Description:
Elements: H1 2-7, E1 18-23, E2 28-32, E3 37-40, E4 43-45, H2 52-61, E5 68-76, E6 87-89, E7 97-103, E8 108-116, H3 117-120, H4 125-135, H5 137-140, E9 147-157, E10 167-168, E11 171-173, H6 189-209, H7 214-244, H8 247-255, H9 259-269
Parallel strand pairs: 4-11
Antiparallel strand pairs: 1-2, 2-3, 5-8, 5-9, 6-7, 7-8, 10-11
Helix pairs in contact: 6-7
Amino acid sequence: MQLVRKETNTELLEGKRLKELEMNSDFVLCKFSDGSICKAGIVIGADGANSVVKRYVERETNTNENSCAAVRAYVEGVSGLQEGTNEFYYLKNYLPGYLWIFPLKDGAANIGFGMEMKKTKSVNLREMFLKIIQEEPIISSRFKNAKIVGEVKGFGLPMFSTKRKISAQRVLLCGDAASLIDPLMGHGIDKAFTSGYLAAKQIELCFKNNDFSMEYAALYDQSVYSAVGSELKRSKQLVQLINRSPFVINVFAKLAQNKRVFNWLVKVVKI
Length: 271
Ligand SMILES: Cc1cc2nc3c(=O)[nH]c(=O)nc-3n(C[C@H](O)[C@H](O)[C@H](O)COP(=O)(O)OP(=O)(O)OC[C@H]3O[C@@H](n4cnc5c(N)ncnc54)[C@H](O)[C@@H]3O)c2cc1C
């Protein structure tokens, strides 16, 4: 934002929370929670996991999402962390969920547990997470001297599950709002950048051709999915395979001891 402010002649309205969008024939009316409004030729929904703009697109396109929920804690004193190595655990008693351990500085780690939302209705993710780090044999020994700092926080993780409408008339979705998080590795910053860049190109086209229709905006869906769709689909298929047959992880781990196979796997899985 600092760059935008410095390098361009853009008016930034900061500290505002979008509450609702209202479509008009030649603009979108954005209504904010402080009661103010603004008119926009086009709206880019880059408002994250609980996107107001996504809910609008879902209503307009009659789609809805089946995302992932997760809990996350910052933990100090975890043993066996390796700087630069992120760990993922698909534990057979806790499928279709996975635990992650991301090392931070000074022996601390960002540790979390996520699962598909439709499954989380019947489970308590926070309890499950604590049970794993306290009782699961291959994990718990590393938490003997560990301490959770702050709360165990819950949030939605809009993972990619299938190609969906990520645009509507005068509206485009980016990043988490477009559910572009990689379902295997949980990263979404890269896809947020890619979709943001492609959205900027689409806006340029919309204004140049004075076409803000849903059909024209669908070109954006195509460009996003041709850039990242096959990678996300492959990750989704791998997650499904792991959930169905968890032993494949052990097979991969064995095969990956061979350097050439390891390099091939890294290329295929794109980790
Ligand atoms: C615990 C955790 C760990 C993660 N670790 C990684 C990682 O290691 N690597 C990785 O690549 N990804 C990671 N991700 C995912 C990554 O954070 C997201 O995919 C990425 O931030 C998506 O960017 P975004 O711009 O779409 O959304 P966000 O970064 O969520 O930004 C959305 C913005 O919109 C604003 N906003 C929301 N609602 C409104 C509203 N109504 N009105 C106005 N503004 C609004 C928010 O304040 C926020 O500034 C992690 C996510 C979590 C939760």
